[in-house]
Each structure stands twice: as structure tokens, then as C-alpha cells.
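Worked example 2:
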Amino acid sequence: MSATPLVARTRDELAEILSPARSGGRPVGLVPTMGALHEGHASLMRVAREHVADGALVVSIFVNPLQFGAGEDLDRYPRTLEADLKVCEREGVDVVFAPSVDEVYPGGEPQVTVEPGPLATVLEGSTRPGHFRGVLTVVAKLLGLVRPDVAVFGEKDYQQLVLIKRMVLDLNMPVTVVGAPTQREPDGLALSSRNRYLEDEPRQEAVALSRTLRAAQEVAEYGADVALDAARAELRRTTGVDLDYLALTDPELGDLPPDVPAGTEARILVAARVGGTRLIDNMPLTLGSAPDQRQEEL
């Protein structure tokens, strides 16, 4: 494969470009994106490269209209293909698949879509109905078109990652889904294409999301209730953040049991609007079970 990414605009071009890798038995890796690439996306490309070695690394760039609801930012979502291609070249991507909407949805809005199930009705799904149906449908299409051996997604969109893994499991899709850690600014803000919407003051306020999660992490050894209380206390000290949700779940986004054993892995997730921009973040926790001791220290 060439060191300079080859750009495929159609499924036929994509199949032709990937043919040498397939005939040579080399693995194919995929990093699906909506463009406006940043260091977080670049880290996904590096993870994918580790998995496919000298195989073919494909990055898709497609702003998927099916996952945007009424009043969301489809029209103003940043489209920066030339800059994106430079990021892909720097990271040694072999193929950039940048199809049009008509290429991905040749018959218009699809009549057959992927039903994401009950997990799509909570957290992000509770405020963005239909969002995950659009996400899973386009990911299923991309997996079918690229036919990768491995596909890499960021943990920043954690609910999306969990749902994609579930889709691959339930539908017996022959691909390994890998989650890659969230990349952050030096002050802790999770990297996101939507961060560019933030002006100076909202940008400073947005760091409260990661502070909230870290506050929970720091006391997680004392139990789930203490961790959530610490996160809520951090949010109460914050201005400019319009909270959507703050939730502590198991790693599959299910409810934690009433009595959580020490050493239980969990996930804390937050979503909020800051300066009119909706941001999400999450972090892993390892819960302990000594709330009484912590309460005495407080």
C-alpha cells in the first residue's frame, strides 16, 4: 500500500484499492470517523496500525445524517477533508474512504435499519431518540463495505462503543472491535470535534466535566455512593454547565447491584451543555466498599 493515502469515493473504488491486500492475505483495519480529525482520531489510527501491522489501514470520513436528530448540528458539523487527509498521511493511513451520502444511502433514507435495542433508550438515547439506530446502521454498512478484520472506536463515545460491540456479537459479524482510551487536552478536557465550537469562557468551563469524573475516581475505593456524591459536589461548584445526566453504571452500562463488592469495575458518564455545545465524557472506576470510613474522613 502507498504511504500517501489513496482516496476512495465509491464502493467500487474501495473494493479495487483493497483488492491487493485481500489477495495477499494481509489484514485490514478500519477507523470510522465523521472527519474534523484531531489527535484523538490519530490515536485510534495508531491503535489500528498496531493490530494490522503491514496490512491495510482504512479511515472512513463520512458525516452520517441518519444519526442527527431534528435541531442537531448536522449542517454546521465541521467538514475539513483537506486537513483530514494530512492527518491520515501523517499517521500512515493507506486508504481514506470518503463517500457521498448517496453512495452510502443509494435509495435515500434506508427502509431497513439496525435496531439497537433497549440500551439505546438510556443516557444518550434518552435525549437523542433514533441516534443509535443511525450510528449502528452506518457502522454496519461500513463494516460490510470495508470488511475489516479489526475496527477501532474511541472510548470517549462509550455508549456507542458498547452498542457496536453488542451488534457485532448479536449479528455474528466477523470483525474484532477494539476500544481505545480517550485522549485529553493537558487540562483534562476530552478531545472532541465539537470542542472547536467553544469560545474562551465556555472552553474553560468545559473542563468541569473531566474534573467531575476525576472527583469520583479519586474516592471510588470508598464505594459507589461516595463516588457519585463527590461528582455531584464538584458539579455544584461549577458554573456555566447545564447538566443532562451523570450516571454510574457497570462496564456494560447496566445497573450496579445494591451491594457492590470491592474491586468491581464500573463506568461514570456525564453529558452537559456548555456555552450551547453539548459535550460528553466518561471514565472507568474501580469501586471499593468502605463508605463508612470515607464519610468519617469527610
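DSSP finds ten helices and nine strands in the chain. Residues 193-289 form a domain with the Pantoate--beta-alanine Ligase; Chain: A,domain 2 fold (CATH 3.30.1300.10).
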